[in-house]
Amino acid sequence: MAAVALAGLLLAVSIGVLPLGWPEQLVLLALLLLSAAVLLRRRRWLLLACLLLPLLCGWGLLGQPHPGSADPVHRIPAAAIQQPVALSARLLEDPRLDASPQRCRALAAVPGGRSELQFSPCPQLRQGWQLQIEGVLRRLPPAPHPLLSGPAERLRRHGAWSVLQVQRWQLQRQPATPVADLRRHMAEALRRSGGEQAGGVLAALVLGSAVSPVPAELREAFRAAGLSHALAASGFHLSVLLGAVLVLARPLAAPLRWGLAAAALGSFLLLAGPQPSVVRAVLMGAVAFALQEGGRRSRPVAVLLLCLLVMLLLRPAWLLDVGFQLSAAATAGLILSARPLEQQLRRRWPGWVAAAIAVPVAASLWTIPLQLLHFGSLPLYAVPANLVVTPLLTPLTLGAMAMALGAVLCPPLQVLLGWLLVPLAQLLVWLVRQLAALPMAQCQLGRISPLLALGLALALLPWLLPQGRRWRLWGVGLLAVVAGVQLQLLRADQLLLVHDGGRQWLVARHAGRAALISRRADGLSCSRASQLAQGLGIQRYDWALLLDPLPPEQPRCWAALTPTLLAGQNGSPALAQGQRLLSPGLAVEALADDSQALLLAAGRLRWGLLPDRQAWWSWRDQGDARRQRLDGLWLGFSPKPTERRALPPLAADRLWWPVAGSASGWRQA
After folding, report:
1. Does residue 59 contact residue 13 with C-beta atoms inside 8 Å?
2. Which phi and psi (to 5°) does residue 169 adopt?
């Protein structure tokens, strides 16, 4: 009953935090109150529920991410996007290199809130230092498409709503920062021992990748192999640390055991930082240890729900953090499904094999809906990868923590441990790269809608919970519906236009295939096109046409996106009049030699593409018969009133052009 009550309170906070319209929130709150009325027989408890649930929902509403009344973003006039400012700032992290090695950025506390400082060139500054800054404060635009999260979404998770391009700065104070200095010293010592790759992994096993980042290419390999959790400070790392401490403290008196356990929990929280997964692990570890020492039987489900509720009461916006969601789902899987699954596997496999398989399978199954909701892909080899890598992770994690402690207290011990652990870390890196390079390591299924994610979770629950056996047939039916809807969306004829400033991407889809037309050929356009492909469930584009007169940047990036890349040469169009770029169900044809006017076909859809006014003039001179067969028309410019009157008689949602004053956005047919 305690778990049910905690779940109800947790749902009330969640309804307020989720970005829903007020009608949906009222309906969900009414359903929650109705459920409480059915379950609670005593009038006193029902009255308490009717009071608490709306209050918690309101608390969640207040905790939705939004800039405070004194946030620096309010210094920017409503009609502007930037404003020169002079203010003081305190660095909340060491500056991190940006895409260019000459630029770096750092989150900072400024009067009224937070902002991200951008430096060029990158100075030698440290966390905790206080600066006087002059520069340009900018309001960040939202992402041009839900699949293309950008700086605004990244900073929003940290409570920042603006960036400050630093022009001049002056150091005011260098206060003592013992925790930051300790983290930095540990990370640098481990990197010196093992190099940027293996040493970076060792540092991440101690501090977490959020505090001590690993190279982007290695981080992507861990993600593709289904091993991202190894680099994120979480319950696994704490369990290794706390388990080792308790083994050593077992013969000691109770006060000493409590002291050592508190020191381990506090040290982990201090070094890894108050991230959602870290706070959840520390709270659960503290409650579990207290119950064990008190001789009481632990109720892990109630403990998990209580910890999640406490976290959301402290910071409701954590609910929207992907790490929080994945951590909570994986922990629920380990509590509710790992043991029953292990018992089933013991009938055919030895006990140690069953236990080794049950843990990653349970965690993976419980996180599938969230992975498809946020990433649109599944690591197919996650379970075998965990089976292969887990024997290395436990000694590496414990050894890396011993190395970090040795770097502070006894450097010769750190060197000695490095001789033993660096080869193991190098082996881990090699294994991860091999697993990530396997064919179909990432199964691109496309990001699913929140409604489909909820349906998928409900369909899987009867198979994940032993108590849900009688509902498994219904689960299969619901799973078939979810899969059918997503498959239909993936195979439908679609045209998606995304524009972000001067960059524009047009993705044509037919029967599960896709093609790309991009206005620019720079590296950012390629990386954005790759993000679109992953979110849409596209393995590779059949072909890509670049309308940029300049040659493509980062050829390897474009080659990874498509086997057929066509770009202009020396300012001339990529296609001559009458030439076509063709794949089954997808084709683009040049309509003129003197412009980039194109005709695009995606299944039954036929659209005219006119990137500029020269293309418009060429298309206008085409015969009426060709112009009348169009299903839609895209203009890469905003037409004048006289030009709008010459447009074909199409519905408003089939005439696309950039809206005046809009820097980014998207359209879909």
Report:
1. yes
2. -145, 155
Those residues whose C-beta lies under 8 Å from the C-beta of residue 286, and which sit 6 or more positions away, are: 265
pLDDT at residue 81 in the model: 83
Identify the helix (H) or strand (E) that includes residue 201. Answer: helix 200-207
- Work out whether strand 605-610 and strand 503-510 pair parallel, antiparallel, or are unpaired: unpaired
- Phi, psi of 665, deg, nearest 5: 160, -175
Can you say whether residue 495 is alpha, beta or left, with left for phi > 0 and alpha for psi between -120 and 50 degrees? beta
How many residues does the structure list for the chain? 669
Locate 24 and state its tokens: 């949906």
Kind and range of the H or E run holding 480: helix 472-491
pLDDT in tens, 568-593: 776 677 777 878 888 898 988 888 77
543 CB-contact burial (10 Å; exposed 0-12 / middle 13-18 / buried 19+): buried
Asked if residues 56 and 93 have their Cβ atoms less than 8 Å apart, the reply is no
Q: Angle between the 22-39 and 2-17 helix axes, to the nearest 10 degrees?
A: 170
Beta bridge partners of 116: 107, 163
Residue 176: what residue type?
A
Q: 633 by DSSP, 3-state: which?
A: strand
CB-based burial of residue 557 (10 Å sphere; 0-12 exposed, 13-18 middle, 19+ buried)? middle
Predicted confidence band at 431 (pLDDT cuts at 50, 70, 90)? very high
Residue type at 638 in one-letter notation? S
Q: Kindly report, residue by residue over 240-288, the tens digit of the pLDDT.
A: 888 888 788 778 887 888 888 888 888 888 888 888 888 888 888 888 7
Which residue has tokens 């799973």?
479
Q: Three-class SS of residue 94?
A: coil
- Decide: pTM greater than 0.85: yes
The position carrying tokens 């947790």 is: 10
DSSP 155-167: HHTTT--EEEEEE
Tell me the residue type at 387. Answer: L
Six token digits for residue 549: 């007169």
Say whether the peptide bond before residue 121 is cis (omega within 30 degrees of 0).
Answer: yes
Which parts of 129-177 fold into alpha helices (H)?
151-156
Give the separation between CA 10 and CA 57, rounded to whole angstroms: 9
SS3 449: coil
Amino acid identity, position 266: G
The answer to whether 375 and 184 have CB atoms below 8 angstroms apart is no
Specify the DSSP element, H or E, that contains 261.
Answer: helix 254-272
Contact 338, 360 (CB under 8 A): no
Taking the C-alpha atoms of residue 533 and residue 582, their distance in angstroms, rounded to an integer, is: 19
CB of 135 closer than 8 Å to CB of 167: yes
Structure tokens at 526: 């390629």
